[in-house]
Design a protein that fits this description.
About 45% of the residues lie in helices and about 15% in strands. It is of the alpha/beta class. The two termini are about 55 Å apart. The protein binds S-adenosylmethionine (SAM) and FE2/S2 (inorganic) cluster. The site of S-adenosylmethionine has 18 residues, from α12 and β9.
């Protein structure tokens, strides 16, 4: 059976540096080009093309076939056409000739089955021998080695963002010019620039460096999709993570360098906005908010958004329903930033702001919905129980309390993101942590909520919803 007109397999198994492999010969560039060209020609959509043929082309990545010396290797089924040494410059020809017109590209075909089999067998033997030798010699497994050094690429990119290197690179410049712009030593700037090239974040021609299309899009000031401000929050948090050993010893956050960064709050709220603006419509949909009409009667009118940050969730509710009135309670230093996001969204008439402390201040009463988006992980169990208790009292009958967070499994060992995020809170708060679904359920029931359910959203965070 072959459910697709063409099914392409491209090898993307990473190998240690210096070992022949399809990725080392450029298979990721081939994969990206295939994806773009297939989409550009509409060959990935089911349904007939203008010749009455079924259009659908499926692209799949796969592991090593032992033919690494001839990589990048690619196979096209159902006919089983093998291509070798494919480069991204070959892709438009393959897509046009083979995938669109059904005529394989002869010059790239590899059809010496005996040679291929012999190479795969020899590769398998060599691989097993090498693994046995490493095992005997007690070599640290690659997976552990990579985990240990995992901070290096991350640190390079964070430093590049801190120094705003991608903006300084602009349309192209040499290390001296870039060093001058970012007020850095030219020799050291050159070393960092070269590492960024090695990481695929810049390109280099002669002495000049250029941004890749991705870096130009996401890291350069003035680009519509520039994420730098929000990503600088991660750069700030990196300094806190460097205190992890001491935080584990002491049981709570300890001072770190750069704690006095005046940009901290601005970067933090930008970082929150980066995630929240994409997740907010999912939350609105999951909670069924809609304008009240003759046929549908939304029961979400009054909303309290505790620690609303950039206001993304209140803004999404206000936009989804003209009936919704939202109140955001956040810290005094954050509220002016929230006000600007609300003003830009054009929903100031529906979203009001209150500067205060959710651990101390009265919540008010009669809300249909109280939201705790990315809040509970900042606080201890006792603080969360107290917030849940006060939220229950502030809700109207049949009102809902919604927690959005990275929810741990009952053993607290996963998902991995939630378990790692718990440490993020250890290094950056007095008593915060990630919590499990049984914990949230227990605390909500103890606060008086009659029904508690979980709603999974796409992505790493989920909702726990309590009905008052
Ligand atoms: C992790 S952010 C989440 C922001 C927003 N809910 C979101 O999901 O994008 C936590 C927010 O809670 C606010 N916050 C922290 N402690 C607070 C407190 N004691 N009272 C009110 N707001 C607080 C922070 O200023 C920040 O805006
Ligand atoms: S990595 Fe391409 S065949 Fe081995």
């Amino acid at each position: 059976m072959e459910p697709f007109r063409f099914h392409l397999f491209v090898r993307t198994q990473q190998k240690p540096e210096g070992v022949p492999s399809c990725p080392a010969s450029g298979s990721f560039a081939v994969l990206g080009a295939l994806d773009r060209e297939i989409q550009a020609r509409g060959l990935n959509s089911p349904g007939p093309n203008n010749r009455g043929l079924n259009n659908d082309v499926q692209l799949t990545t796969c592991g090593c076939m032992g033919l690494c010396d001839e990589g990048p290797v690619m196979v096209v089924y159902p006919a089983g056409v093998w291509y070798r040494r494919v480069q991204s410059s070959d892709v438009s020809e393959i897509v046009d000739a083979h995938l669109r017109d059904g005529k394989p590209v002869d010059r790239l075909i590899w059809n010496d089955a005996a040679a291929m089999k012999a190479m795969a067998v020899e590769h398998g033997e060599k691989f097993r021998e090498a693994m046995a030798a490493r095992e005997k010699a007690g070599v640290l497994p690659d997976r552990l080695d990579q985990m240990i050094r995992g901070y290096m690429p991350s640190r390079c990119l964070l430093t590049a963002l801190e120094l705003d290197i991608f903006t300084a690179v602009g349309d192209g410049a040499n290390a001296e010019q870039i060093g001058e712009k970012i007020h850095a030593n030219a020799r050291a700037a050159g070393m960092l620039l070269n590492a960024l090239v090695a990481l695929g974040l810049l390109s280099k021609s002669g002495d000049d460096y250029k941004n890749t299309p991705e870096s130009a899009r996401f890291f350069v000031q003035g680009s519509k999709d520039n994420h730098r401000n929000g990503l600088l929050h991660t750069a700030n948090i990196w300094h806190r993570w460097s205190t992890l050993t001491d935080a584990v010893r002491s049981g709570t956050r300890v001072p770190a360098s750069r704690d006095d960064n005046p940009e901290w709050t601005h970067n933090f709220i930008s970082g929150m906005q980066r995630h929240a603006k994409d997740r907010a419509p999912l939350v609105v949909k999951a909670l069924g908010a809609a304008p009240a009409t003759a046929n549908s009667n939304s029961n979400i009118r009054r909303i309290l958004d505790l620690g609303g940050g950039s206001g993304a969730y209140s803004i999404a509710f206000a936009k989804a329903s003209p009936d919704a009135q939202c109140e955001i309670l956040d810290l005094p230093e954050v509220v002016p930033l929230t006000a600007e996001y609300v003003r830009q969204a054009g929903v100031s008439a529906q979203v009001t702001l209150r500067a205060g402390d959710m651990l101390q201040d009265d919540f008010g009463s009669g809300y249909d919905l109280i939201m705790l988006n990315a809040i509970c992980h900042m606080f201890s169990e006792e603080q969360n129980r107290e917030i849940f208790h006060r939220a229950h009292q502030a809700l109207a009958p049949n009102g809902r309390l919604v927690v959005q967070d990275f929810i741990l499994n009952p053993e607290k060992t996963g998902p991995q993101h939630a378990a790692l995020f718990s440490l993020n809170m250890l290094v950056s708060t007095e008593a915060g942590a990630s919590y499990s679904e049984p914990e949230y359920t227990h605390w909500m029931k103890a606060a008086g909520f009659t029904e508690v359910c979980r709603i999974n959203l796409p992505g790493p965070s989920s909702l726990i919803v309590g009905l008052s």
